[in-house]
Design goal:
By secondary structure, the chain is mostly helical. The protein has one domain. The chain has 3 helices and no strands.
Length: 94
């Protein structure tokens, strides 16, 4: 009886290479997923903010070009400090 218990206990305590390999593989896959999703999130956030800034810059430049052309057509020199034309344009857009 004692010998059968020792045999049973020793069978459960044997080193299982497959079990350790499976656990380590799972941990490696989880770590890879976490790191790659963090890096992808940072990259996409940075790219979206950069693109948003470029679009805003192009919009403001286009508004200023339009207002400068309107000022020249009216026979006056465009003035950056005179916000009357820009305010009128933004009121029309809104």
């Amino acid at each position: 009886m004692l010998r059968s218990l020792q045999t049973l206990f020793s069978l459960h305590r044997q080193f299982s290479l497959i079990r350790w390999f499976s656990v380590l593989s799972l941990l490696c896959i989880i770590a890879t997923c976490v790191v790659s999703s963090y890096l992808l999130s940072q990259f996409l956030t940075q790219q979206m903010l950069h693109r948003d800034g470029e679009i805003m810059l192009e919009f403001v430049q286009s508004v200023m070009d339009t207002e400068n052309e309107k000022a020249r057509a009216a026979g006056r020199e465009p003035n950056i400090r005179d916000s009357h034309g820009l305010t009128g344009f933004l009121c029309q857009v809104h």
